[in-house]
Amino acid sequence: MKATGIVVEYNPFHNGHLHHAAKAKELSGADIVIAVMSGQFLQRGEPAFADKWTRTEMALSAGVDVVIELPYAFATAQASEFARGAIELLGAAGCSSFCFGSEQGTIEPFLKSLELLSTERERYNQIIHDRIQTGISYPKALNDAYLTLTKGSEGYADLTKPNNILGYHYIEAAHKLNSPIKPLTIQRIGAGYHDPLEPGVAIASATGLRNAFFEGEELTQLSPYLPSSSIRLLERVHSEQQGFVDWQRFYPMLRFTILREGPKALSRFAEVTEGIENLIHEAAKRSETFDAFIDRVKSKRFTRTRIQRMLTHIFSGYTQQEAQAIKHPEYIRLLGMTQHGRRYLNGQKKAIPLPIISRAADLTGNMGQLDIRASTLYLQAIGADSLKKEYTTPPIYLGKSSDK
Questions:
Q1: Is 67 annotated as a binding residue?
Q2: pLDDT band at 293 (very low <50, low <70, confident <90, very high)
Q3: Domain boundaries, the chain
Q4: Is 11 within any annotated ligand binding site?
Q5: Does the annotation place 188 within a ligand binding site?
Q6: Among residues 219, 217, 196, 220, which one has the least CA distance to residue 206?
Q7: What is the pLDDT of residues 338-368, one digit of tens each?
């Protein structure tokens, strides 16, 4: 059986994700789709809207055949590390290709951009360094350097677009890993990455959907944007967890941790650099809500996303020392599979170079213990009754055809 891979968060799974999974299989000619999915915390430094098992079941109910977890160390990292961990896992799982959605819509511009940045790496890095010295953020410095190198030229990928940026990092990761996995892309359609919901547009942004939920929209009112299986599963989790998850729900625990640790201790956590620990501590003392806290900390140099990643690491206890010790994925954590997915994994077992883990109790080493710690802290913030789920939830198996 032939497999293609996709890198996802499904926060939540909507019609755009349904389209992506179907087109990935069509474009690659694959028999199954394997999704490597972030667990309880996401790349933009946020707790997931719904837990990883709910999001896994959404995916398996709507066209994905295997869901594996992207370990915390990669799921919450900057784009290049996020991409590297994901591509390594898809390669280890035996995927012959990976497919991402992009604003660009064709693969050739990405390959041309990769060639340019590979041959002009020294100049590119120097421009980035010079721009950071002016006080701008790292993402802005990257963009400025890229625009300088491509000025007056055509045929390169537009790396100001969020999905294009991630897509480029996937391709770059495969190149650096010398992976035979083939890159593919499909045109992103419908709403933009951060767009609000728009009547008559069936493919909405995940951001727009989350905002609608938190602003009080009923799930049934959002049915034009979500597969019926997603509506059903979200209704279930909403009832069980008394709502969905965002930073405000986690803020009391986060604030307690920040105030208990103090500024000096905060500096030992991953990505907490340049003295920002003092500002974080002061903001926690003065802020009753998460939004008020963020407003006191964010700046041109420290973007909201960068700060949220720091806060995620403070919340989970992920230290600089741990981050330096984790280099590569050490296992494949299986979250769920369909009947076709099970058949594929059974046929590939001997060829897969990493152990396939189906129980939290089998996770060992720094990476495994970090994944357990992050997940149990997430579950604790939701409610004590949920804490045991990390150890007692087996991989989800959907043996029948998907419910789209």
A1: no
A2: very high
A3: 119-160, 247-324
A4: yes
A5: yes
A6: 196
A7: 999 999 999 998 999 999 999 999 998 999 9
